[in-house]
From TrEMBL:
<feature type="transmembrane region" description="Helical">
    <location>
        <begin position="70"/>
        <end position="89"/>
    </location>
</feature>
<feature type="transmembrane region" description="Helical">
    <location>
        <begin position="37"/>
        <end position="58"/>
    </location>
</feature>
<feature type="transmembrane region" description="Helical">
    <location>
        <begin position="101"/>
        <end position="119"/>
    </location>
</feature>
<feature type="transmembrane region" description="Helical">
    <location>
        <begin position="6"/>
        <end position="25"/>
    </location>
</feature>
<keyword id="KW-0472">Membrane</keyword>
<keyword id="KW-0812">Transmembrane</keyword>
<protein>
    <recommendedName>
        <fullName>DUF1516 domain-containing protein</fullName>
    </recommendedName>
</protein>
<dbReference type="Pfam" id="PF07457">
    <property type="entry name" value="DUF1516"/>
</dbReference>
<dbReference type="InterPro" id="IPR010899">
    <property type="entry name" value="UPF0344"/>
</dbReference>
<keyword id="KW-1003">Cell membrane</keyword>
<keyword id="KW-1133">Transmembrane helix</keyword>
Length: 120
């Protein structure tokens, strides 16, 4: 129970920080954006630690026959972290790629769908 709350809190905060950092890079707020980006990276670790811990628990539980959905959920979570990082680094360099945002929103919808509806 603690892990799931820590997990949801960390990805929720990460999403907010992601958008704030994105805006800061867009405004060329040099040092400020760097600090927010660093806090966001710490949150990635919190997401990975809590998600990874729960995932390990599920994978070693002999009572769970079908591990597919939880593995897909984990992979989608990894993809989300990767996309947030790619989008920010590209924004920092002054590049912007529409496709990354398409992937970002599709992955977000899918990860929420898997987290809340498939896994319940
Ligand atoms: C930004 C990235 C992520 C988002 C938005 C996200 C979202 C979610 C959501 C919505 C849930 C369901 C919460 C609930 O039932 O109250 C969840 C649970 C879970 N997530 Fe993530 N997650 C992310 C990253 C990850 C990563 C990287 C992993 C694995 C390495 C992971 C593994 C898990 C596991 C194992 C559960 C438990 C499912 C259950 O008990 O029903 N997540 N996540």
């Amino acid at each position: 129970m603690f892990m799931i709350h820590a997990h949801v809190t960390s990805w929720f905060l990460a999403l907010i920080l992601f958008f704030v950092t994105y805006m800061l890079y867009k405004k060329n707020a040099g040092k400020k954006s760097k600090i927010f980006h660093m806090i966001l990276r710490v949150l990635y670790l919190a997401i990975l630690a809590t998600g990874g811990h729960m995932l390990a628990g599920y994978l070693t539980d002999p009572g769970i026959v079908n591990n597919g959905p939880i593995i897909i959920k984990g992979v989608l979570g990894l993809v989300m972290i990767g996309l947030m990082e790619i989008i920010l680094v590209q924004r920092k360099r002054g590049e912007g790629r529409l496709m990354n945002w398409v992937f970002f929103w599709v992955s977000l919808v899918l990860v929420l769908f898997y987290g809340y509806i498939v896994l319940g």
